[in-house]
Amino acid sequence: FLSALVDEEEKLSADEAGSAERAEQLERARQVAAAQLATSEAELARITELRAETLALRTQLDRRIRETSDRKTRLEAQHEATSADLATLKSQIASLPDPEAKKQAVDLADAKLTEAEHVAREAEAATLAARDAEKSLRPVLAQARDVVNALEAEARTIAKLLNVDAADLFAPVVEQVKVERGYETALGAALGDDLDVPTDAAAPVHWSASAPKANDPKLPGGAIPLSGFVRGADALARRLAQIGVVEDAAVGARLADGLAPGQRLVTKGGAVWRWDGYRAAADAPSAAAMRLAQKNRLAELDAEIVSATKAKTDAENAVAAAETATRDAQKGEGDARQAVRDAQAAARTAREDLAAAERATGDLSRRRAVLEETAQRVLADIKEASGILAEAQGALAAEPDPQAHDEQLQQAQTTVAQHRAAAAEARAEHEGMARERTQCQQRLETIARERANWVKRAENAATQIETLTNRRAETAQALEAISGTPEDFDLKRRDLNREIDKAEAARREAADALATAETKSRDADKAANEAVTSLAETREGRARAEERLAALSARREDIESRISEALQCQPHQAFSKTGLATDDELPAIEPTEKRLERLKIDRERLGAVNLRAEEEQSELVTRLEMLTSERDDVINAIAELRTGIAALNKEGRERLLSAFDEVQAHFTKLFTHLFGGGTAELQLIESDDPLDAGLEIIARPPGKKPQTMTLLSGGEQALTAMALIFAVFLTNPAPICVLDEVDAPLDDHNVERFCDLMDEMTRQTETRFVIVTHNPITMARMDRLFGVTMAEQGVSQLVSVDLQRAEALREAS
């Protein structure tokens, strides 16, 4: 077996030495074939590109000549038709009248309208000034009324308090006393309950007249007699003369030791020092002191009420005058706005007359302008088409004949086919030689490994033979020694039996060890076999990998060839044609392949070349010209519509502002009527254009600051909403008005105001009001009542009551 391996190895080595030179020759042949193929393919690409450019340019020039010729013919026909239409329009326009007189009438009407608007603005300014004046006076009037009401309420309260004891049989002396303001507490502290004693002699306890005596002791220096601050109490004169008023507690404490019997000192705050040592600190004022202070306050209030009443009367007169001025200003503003409306009507009539006159010539003038512009544009297009046609014809004449490129292209294609076949053949031979050399080298390596294994196994076998030979010699010697000593056989037999037993035990142990060693040997052999198998599989995998590598290399070369053929560039230059930067991430393969397939499908859907493209283009050009003409007509119509819309918006703004002012006037009046004062106004917000503006209500009920409607209470919001609704209603009255539970959120006082407003609306308008309500106050103020009653269970009956007739019958009875 080793000799066979050696023979095979020598044969393979000889073949390997001869194939190296053959591989080099095939590699050089492959490179030469590849270079020739690249040169011929580049020449083919250049000729193909040159021929394609020539054909594309000639086709483009032919198409341009045909299109330009057709376009020039159409333009000339269009110019002739436009010239004929223009001559007809000019003759029609010449026969129409001149609208200059209508323009003068419009200018005169606009001048009158401007003057009327100026007068209306002045009247509006006067009305606003009158309203502002009235608005500024109303807070003064409200304040004056509040002052009078507060003073009268205080006076009534004090008078009521002072008249509590008026029913007593004997009036106390305090009712006769008048004390200067600020000394009430001092008098009450000095006399105390003595002020409740009357001066009537019929009373069991009373004051009798007692004038000061000449021998009465004098008050200490620094004390002022209290009698100098009290009037109307002659019975108290001597008592008051012995009471001194000091500035403060320190002075009273210093002068207290100098008091004579019957004397006392007092401060304005109520501290008391008596001659017998009695001391009283300042405390709350007594009832008598408070009564004296209230009498003094009542006298002051009488004077203040007179002054406040005069101020209120003046404020009422001023407000009345301001209201009169506001009404006069509103009447003047209404007259001015009526004059504006009359002027607007006259201006509209003049504009309508002018528009009628201009419409008679406007359409023809616009058509003439359009035709003139069209004629000029057509002439320019004819001139442009002539230039383009001459240029295209010259360029087409200068282009070479493409047949020369066809011959060169055919020769180049033949050469490329030959070179491509030669290159493929050389590449296949080179790849086959490379695979054979690889397989030969792999087999030589395998033979070397197998020969080494067999040599090693031979060496192991020789060693085993020598060991067995030695054991046989030793056994022969032992046998010779045993045969020479038979006499000792029996003894030794017994010894041997014993040794046999021992050897048997050793044998058994050796057999066990041998079995274990054989098991290990079998495992080692199995592992070796597995390793050999794995090695073989690895070699086969490597061979397959090398085959795949060779196939991938061939595929790579084929792909590079296809890139060069399709993109006309080297493979390393293909990335630049993707439009991606060097650092950009490459797109995903799957979406790109799907997009490529979709584009291929789209390309296939395009089908063959459309031979009717020129005819379709001509039809589209004709349709485009027709659409352009229609577009011009639409543009003119849009301009006219915008003019009309602007006029409508202007008139709408004027009417809206007029209606807004009228509603504003009614709303202000009704708000004041419902709330018994206060002011309110409507404001246009969120836009300077009245047509786009929103509406906001600013209300100021009496005694509150101006605020938006959402900040008012529920009742105030209801009254404000009523004022706005009826203001709109007064602007455009209706013959009948139905009000459903409008008085539900109102209290009794506001219901009375609502009923008063209904009476006022009934007097001012011819409208019949039908009110659905459950409020007894509202029902009591109506002329006729309608209701449903159920006299019997399940039977409803309509009931009607004429309250006016009922009142007349009651008065007659």
Question: What is the structure about, briefly put?
Answer:
The chain is α+β, with helices and mostly antiparallel strands and 813 residues long. 71% of the residues lie in helices and 8% in strands.
Mean pLDDT: 77
The percent of residues in helical segments reads over 70%
Count of discrete alpha- or pi-helical segments spanning 4 or more residues: 14
What amount of the residues lies in strands?
5-15%
Order of helices and strands: HHEHEEHEHEEEHHHHHEEEHEHEHEEH
* Helix vs. strand class: alpha+beta
Biggest sheet record: 5 strands, mixed
Query: Order of strands in the sheet with the most strands?
Result: 2-4-5-6-7
- Sequence stretches where pLDDT stays below 50 over 5 or more residues: none
Total DSSP E strands: 14
Shape: flat
Radius of gyration in whole Å, from Cα?
67 Å
Distance between the termini: 161 Å
Task: Supply database-style keywords.
single chain, 813 residues, alpha+beta, five-stranded mixed β-sheet, three-stranded antiparallel β-sheet, 71% helix, 8% strand, flat
General description of the model:
- With 813 residues, the protein is an alpha+beta fold.
- It is 71% helix and 8% strand.
- It is built from 14 helices and 14 strands.
- It has helices spanning 2-94, 100-162, 184-191, 237-241, 249-255, 287-398, 403-483, 489-567, 589-606, 613-675, 714-731, 748-764, 776-780, 803-812; strands at residues 178-179, 224-225, 230-231, 243-246, 264-267, 272-274, 279-280, 679-685, 694-700, 707-708, 736-740, 768-772, 784-792, 795-802.
- Strands 2-4-5-6-7 form a five-stranded mixed β-sheet.
- Helix 2 (100-162) packs antiparallel against helix 6.
- The longest helix is centred in the middle third of the chain and has 112 residues, at 287-398.
